[in-house]
């Protein structure tokens, strides 16, 4: 028996490969199916099942393409009603994979169809449980997402279901079980997940607040719902894609992989009103970019920020990337449902400049220069674009919080006639914010390279008292 966690950092998502005696099962695959097919081919195995723990909100699953390419049966838990051919498991139903068995355990709460999958080895011993978004390491899946798709499923109702699922289905299982969750730290599907991506169930019973048997149902509901921030706007749209089906990734890749000359790129942008998405590193972007382009760097939490800041999944997108990053970028867009990439700039920004096309720049200064400016004149306007929880834990006194997550909703706070300095934690998010504001017509913007970490290291500016994040919900 082989069990492998296939972890994708930019989405903080874990898929799983399970194999026994030439048969394999995949749990919660991403949309790009090649890693799973290659893994099975390497082992000489046939993929028999694709198990889906629920209809995912934060990514488009690869179950349809994987099934089409391998003939594997798609399996959902009870109450799931996909608009395509799939098998709906009964609570407690076993599935044979080689000499091992995988048992469906219906655990409603994160969503109503949420199902965990219990792995039993060749001897019948329960060895691991794949919990999807029902149970994370140190946390549980947020129970407020399904209400954005089904209005009468309130977050209180779902949290109550989750309490019962954990108490009646998960906690009675053996302590030595290995817990394999669907996500780790950084995912928006929970609020305080551990950076660890596996643990024993026994350890989770000791340290995961949600498994504390002293909590009453009412206390559990309050604890689980306290501190949740609004989910990214693309979540409900991804849920519907996972329920209704979607276009093949091969077709999406073919459409997006059109290499366009500067002239053709400019014409396409004008004709389609496409968004120009520049995925290069922040400081590289600052030195020269196509006017009105948005910068979201491919090396950061790319997919989640695209989903947060580009509200329309059907928005036509034209790409500017470093050479060789085109295919990766199109794939990562498609993972969160952005299927309408219509091409990329051949030769990148240098080809654009060589063609005599106009380029824009961003003024970016060091943390020390910013510290000197603010120390000399505390009345200058500056924004910290980190999340509110980050800002609340520690920030530069006198600098306002304008979270990038909600930038589109808070443009009215910004005076186009004033000059603003912007920083985040390390420089990634502040450049995103600057690029969005510039595309909206704001010109007097200065980025602080290195962000809060660099400002703090310089040590010239007064900071609020640090509050340990572990004490905050």
From TrEMBL:
Gene Ontology BP, a term: hydrogen sulfide metabolic process
Sorted UniProt keywords: Metal-binding, Plasmid
Keyword set includes Lipid metabolism: no
Species for this entry: Runella slithyformis (strain ATCC 29530 / DSM 19594 / LMG 11500 / NCIMB 11436 / LSU 4)
Domain of life assignment: Bacteria
Annotated GO MF terms: metal ion binding; sulfur dioxygenase activity
Protein name as it appears in the record: Rhodanese-like protein
SUPFAM superfamilies for this protein: Metallo-hydrolase/oxidoreductase, Rhodanese/Cell cycle control phosphatase
Ranges for domain Rhodanese: 270-361, 376-464
SMART domains on file: Lactamase_B, RHOD
Record flagged with keyword Metal-binding: yes
């Amino acid at each position: 028996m082989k069990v492998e966690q296939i972890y994708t950092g930019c989405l903080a998502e874990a898929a799983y490969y399970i194999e026994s005696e030439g048969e394999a099962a995949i749990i919660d695959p991403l949309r790009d199916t090649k890693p799973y097919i290659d893994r099975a081919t390497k082992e000489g195995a046939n993929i028999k099942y694709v198990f889906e723990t629920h209809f995912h909100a934060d990514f488009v699953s690869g179950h349809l393409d994987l099934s089409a390419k391998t003939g594997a049966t798609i399996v959902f838990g009870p109450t799931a009603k996909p608009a395509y051919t799939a098998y709906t498991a009964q609570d407690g139903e076993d599935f044979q994979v080689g000499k091992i068995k995988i048992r469906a355990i219906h655990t409603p709460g994160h969503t109503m169809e949420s199902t965990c999958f219990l792995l039993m080895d060749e001897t019948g011993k329960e060895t691991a449980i794949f919990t999807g978004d029902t149970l994370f390491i140190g946390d549980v899946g947020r129970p407020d997402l399904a209400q954005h798709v089904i209005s009468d499923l309130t977050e209180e109702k779902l949290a109550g279901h989750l309490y019962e699922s954990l108490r009646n289905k998960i906690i009675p299982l053996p302590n030595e079980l290995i817990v394999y969750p669907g996500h780790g730290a950084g995912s928006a599907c929970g609020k305080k997940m551990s950076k660890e991506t596996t643990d024993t169930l026994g350890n989770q019973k000791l340290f995961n607040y949600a498994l504390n048997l002293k909590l009453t149902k009412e206390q559990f509901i309050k604890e689980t719902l306290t501190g949740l921030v609004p989910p990214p706007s693309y979540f409900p749209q991804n849920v519907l894609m996972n329920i209704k089906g979607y276009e093949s990734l091969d077709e999406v890749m073919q459409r997006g992989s059109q290499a366009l000359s500067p002239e053709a790129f400019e014409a396409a942008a004008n004709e389609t009103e496409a968004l120009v998405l520049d995925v290069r590193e922040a400081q590289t972007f600052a030195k020269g970019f196509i006017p009105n382009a948005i910068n979201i760097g491919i090396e950061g939490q790319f997919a989640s920020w695209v989903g947060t800041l580009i509200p329309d999944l059907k928005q036509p997108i034209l790409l500017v990337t470093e050479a060789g990053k085109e295919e990766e970028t199109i794939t990562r867009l498609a993972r969160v449902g952005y299927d309408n990439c219509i091409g990329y700039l051949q030769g990148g920004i240098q080809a654009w400049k060589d063609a005599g096309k106009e380029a824009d720049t961003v003024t970016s200064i060091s943390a020390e220069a910013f510290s000197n400016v603010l120390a000399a004149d505390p009345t200058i306007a500056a924004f910290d674009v980190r999340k509110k929880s980050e800002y609340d834990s520690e920030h530069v006194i006198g600098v306002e919080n304008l979270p990038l997550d909600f930038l589109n909703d808070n443009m009215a706070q910004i005076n186009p006639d004033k000059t603003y300095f912007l920083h985040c934690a390390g420089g990634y998010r502040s450049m995103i914010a600057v690029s969005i504001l510039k595309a909206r017509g704001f010109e007097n913007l200065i980025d602080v390279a290195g962000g809060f970490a660099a400002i703090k290291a310089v040590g010239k500016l007064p900071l609020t008292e640090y509050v340990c994040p572990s004490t905050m919900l």
